[in-house]
Design a protein that fits this description.
This protein is an alpha+beta fold. The protein is built from eleven helices and seven strands. It folds into two domains: about 25-230, Ammonium transporter AmtB like domains (Ammonium transporter fold), CATH 1.10.3430; about 260-405, Alpha-Beta Plaits, CATH 3.30.70. About 45% of the residues lie in helices and about 10% in strands. The protein has a five-stranded mixed beta sheet, covered by helices on one side. It has a two-stranded antiparallel sheet with strand order 4-5.
């Protein structure tokens, strides 16, 4: 990551990092759980031969320690990011799972469950602090946090053997189990040797790649994406539709309160705050008079369109213009974070519904829309009310109120 350099747009000219979230967190989560499952074979299979009853029994301890450390690390990372960022960071929590697995690998067969718990606990915090350090201080762009997961927690796990080893499976006792500094010194020496070897060899290899075929793709390839240029794919995840991130709402159901209409439980003040209404004042010029007609423009979630359309139809509004739009907004000055870095504005799919009303009260349209759209969460939408000075029906030449009628 250091030799390749940061991705385009990761840092501004002042060195401030910008979050670049992964484009498929679901696939990432699936990968983490596949790794978690396979780690039982990795640790259990590589540590012991399973040739005797004793080794089979010890394998149970290996698998238990592996799972315990990963589970503890996952929970600690979730709680730590929740406290640190105001919300639990899903991406960081998934890395916390891997951090616990990495940290316990070195000592899975020589530490007690208590030692595995402590190792996982420290790993859950270490992975967060490490990601923040490389992102904000070292300015090394590590897109998936691999350095923090595998290097930082690999170092911690190796040192932890010298601290928590209970002397099982032929390994010396750790510092906290009466073994003194002997085993800890061996672990530290191993770290120095391995790190020095890897640093020297990989520096040479990456330099050779950089000077021959090149270590980094051209800027236009990076911007377009390697899926297009390397594989001829518009997306590696074709078939995954873009959906409204805020659409997890249930349709009201009279048989259960799980889908109870949120607006029925909200006060007028809450609905006014969640779905603000902007009224544009009438500007009357010479020759243009107030027609008494208004345009109501509603920006809402895609998932709420059917409810909104039904509510407007019940009022007698049968004509509307519907447009799919993209938009974003910062609610109450808050910003989202991804692995501790503020996320730039993200455009979300929305729906814009425009209706012209004259005989129907504007206030009744506004209230019906607010009731249909309200959930109490960020992104409920906005309503804009404008005065309409003139309407002309092209087919008949009728104007104003008559132009809005479709009587044959």
């Amino acid at each position: 990551a250091w030799m390749l350099g940061p991705r385009i747009g990761k840092y501004d000219k002042d060195g401030k990092p910008h979050a670049i979230p992964g484009h498929n967190l679901t696939a990432g989560a699936l990968g983490v759980f596949i790794l978690w499952f396979c780690w039982f074979g990795f640790n259990g299979g590589s540590s012991l031969s399973l040739s005797t009853d004793e080794t089979m029994t010890l394998t149970g301890l290996v698998c238990f320690n592996t799972n315990l450390a990963a589970a503890v690390s996952t929970c600690v990372t979730m709680l730590f990011t929740w406290k640190r960022y105001g919300k639990p960071d899903v991406s960081m929590t998934l890395n916390g799972s891997l951090a616990g697995l990495v940290a316990i690998t070195a000592g899975c067969d020589t530490v007690s469950p208590f030692g595995a718990f402590i190792i996982g606990f420290v790993a859950g915090i270490l992975v967060v602090l490490s990601v923040e350090f490389f992102d904000n201080t070292a300015k090394i762009d590590d897109p998936v946090g691999a350095v923090s997961v595998h290097f930082a927690n690999g170092v911690w796990g190796t040192i932890a053997v010298g601290l928590f080893s209970d002397g099982g499976n032929g390994v010396g006792k750790g510092l906290f189990y009466g073994g003194g500094l002997s085993q800890l010194g061996i672990q530290l020496l191993g770290l120095i040797v391995v790190d020095a070897y890897v640093l020297a060899v990989m520096f040479v290899i990456f330099k050779l790649i950089d000077k021959t075929i090149g270590l980094r793709v051209p800027a236009e390839v990076e911007i377009d994406g390697l899926d297009i240029h390397e594989h001829g794919l518009a997306s590696a995840y074709a078939g995954f539709a873009i959906s409204d991130a805020n659409s997890a709402a249930m349709v009201p159901n009279e048989n259960t309160d799980l889908g109870e209409d949120d607006a029925s439980k909200a006060s007028a003040k809450q609905m006014d705050a969640a779905v603000p209404v902007v009224r544009e004042p009438a500007v009357i010029h010479d020759g243009i008079y107030d027609t008494g007609m208004h345009k109501v423009s509603i920006i809402a979630k895609l998932s709420k369109f059917d409810q909104l359309k039904s509510a407007l139809n019940d009022l007698g509004v049968t004509g509307m213009t519907v447009t799919q739009v993209m938009g974003c907004g910062i609610q109450k000055g808050t910003t989202e974070k991804y692995r501790g870095v503020p996320v730039d504005s993200t455009l979300l799919p929305k729906i814009k519904v425009e209706v012209i009303v004259s005989k129907i009260s504007v206030d009744s349209v506004v209230e019906a829309a607010k009731k249909a759209l309200y959930t109490g969460h960020i992104g409920d939408g906005k309503i804009f009310v404008y005065n309409v000075t003139r309407v002309v029906k092209i087919r008949t030449g009728e104007e104003d109120f008559a132009a809005l009628q479709d009587v044959e």
